[in-house]
Amino acid sequence: MKRLSRLFILLFTVVGLASCSKEIKFNGDESESKLVIYSVARAGEPLQVEVSHSAFFLKSGPIENYIGALKPDEGSVKLFVNGSMVPYVLVRREPQPDITDLPDAPLFYESTYVPAEGDRLRLVISFPGFDEASAETQVPYCTELTVNSVTPRAVNDEYTGLYHYYDLTLTINRGSDPSCYYGIRPYLHFEYTYAEFTASEYYSWNLESDDFLFQGNGSMTDQLSQLLSNDDVSMLFANTKIPSSSYTFRGSFMGYDIDLMRAEGATANYFLVFTTMNRDLYYYRTSHATASNSSSFSIFSEATSIYSNVKGGYGCFCAASSKKIALGL
Amino acid sequence: MKNLFRVVLTGLLLALFVQPASAQRRVTVSGYMIDASSGEPLLSAAVLEPATRQGAVTNSFGYYSLTLPAGEHTLAYSYMGYNTVEMTLKLERDTVLDVRLTPVPTELTGAVVTATHSEIGVRGTQMSAIEVPVAQIKNIPAIGGEVDLLKALQLLPGVQSGTEGSAGLYIRGGGPDENLLLLDGVPLYNVNHMMGFFSVFDADAIKNVTLYKGSFPARFGSRLSGVVDVRLKDGNDQEFHWGFSVGLLAAKINMEGPIVKGKTTFNLSLRRTYYDVFTAPVLALISARQTGMGTTAGYYFYDLSGKLTHKFSNHDKLYVSLYSGDDDVYARIRESDDNSYMQKKDDGTYTHSTDRSLTRMNLGWKWGNVVTAARWNHIFSPQLFMNTTVNYTRYRHRLTIGMEEQREEMEGTKPGTSDLYYAADTLNADLGYNSLISDISVGADFEYKPSPEHDIRFGADYIFHTFKPSVTTISMKAGYTDGVETLSQKQDTTFGDTNLLTREAALYAEDNWSLTDWFKFNLGLRWSHYHTSAKNYNSIEPRLSLRLLVSNDLSFKASYSEMSQYLHLLSNSNLSLPTDLWVPVTDRIAPMRSRQGAAGLFYTRGQFDFSIEGYYKTMDNVVEYRDGASFLGSTAGWEDKVAMGYGWSYGVEFLVQKKSGNTTGWLGYTWAKTMRRFDREGNVINFGEPFPAKYDRRHDLSLVVNHKINQKIDLSGTFVFGSGVCGSLAMQNVLAPYYDENEGFTYPSGTPYFERRNNYRMPPYHRLDLGINFHKQLRKGGERIFNISIYNTYNHQNPFLVYDSYKTEYRSDPTDGSVSVTSRKVLKQLSIFPIMPSFSWSYKF
Question: So what's the ipTM on this one?
Answer without folding.
Answer: 0.78
